[in-house]
Amino acid sequence: MRLRVLLTGAGGLLGKKISQIFSTSHEVIGVYNTSKPEGNYVMSDLSKLDNVRKIVSEIKPDVVIHAAALTNVDKCEEDKGLAKLLNVDVTREIAKSSNQHGSLLVYVSTDYVFDGVKGNYREEDEPNPINFYGLTKLQGEREVMENSSSFIIARTSTPYGSNPASEKDNFALWLIKKLKNNEKVNVVTDQITSPTLNTSFALMLKELIESYKRYNFIIHLTDASQVSRYEFSVKLAEVFESNKELITPTTMSEIKWKAKRPKNSSLNVEKANNVLKVNRPLNLIEALKILKSEIIDLNV
Fold first, then answer.
1. Is the terminal CB of the chain with fewer CB neighbours within 10 Å at N or C?
2. Do the beta carbons of residue 219 and residue 207 sit within 8 Å?
3. Over the stretch 68-97, which tens digit does the pLDDT of each residue have?
4. Model pTM?
């Protein structure tokens, strides 16, 4: 069945790939503010909450994928009012408007809802964010559960891909360019996540929406590997045939971040492996090989 999909954050790292993947079989209307996406889109400032209600009312989507957020972790710590507005208040209005029009709401959340003490978090584990970004995303999850009668909360982790996130390179693209230019980089060894290729995330999400009929649940949609930033960087260098000796191990205490980062926020993907039949979580080498194939013509 062809669905009408309203996608917020359509110009972002995840949004651009979701739009590309979903547009192969569904009608996608992307919403953006500053980073212009491709395809069918509308420009709107969702921080003006009346715009949220207006867009959902006019488009009448079957599915709303809410991928827009303030994801800059340090910016959230610096400007808590803005973070609350964009990550909580906007989400509340989207949940209410989606519910009013009978739309399935897909809320893109994060591994940062966890404190990082144990890692390999399951969907049922108790969230306990240690920075304001994680707190606002958790509050967004709760707004979705309280205000929508048909929802999926899809948590992901450390997304990367062949397209920049707005005007800024994601970690993988940044690293590829640095290594190509023979520049040394410092990468932390003591932060473990589940790095997720945006293509993989979009394919898993598309299959989930198309094939899974019972909604109102949380699912971890990440790739399968649980690695440190340093391990990720070394594997990327190997796949891209770059000089991994340029990568210097360091620790989070040596990086001047304003917000705390969880030490091990990796996500368990057993549920995704059980639910999905075709597009399951990838291991790191599989994902990096796909990334390489996607940017083979990219001048990085």
1. N
2. no
3. 999 999 999 999 999 999 999 999 999 999
4. 0.95
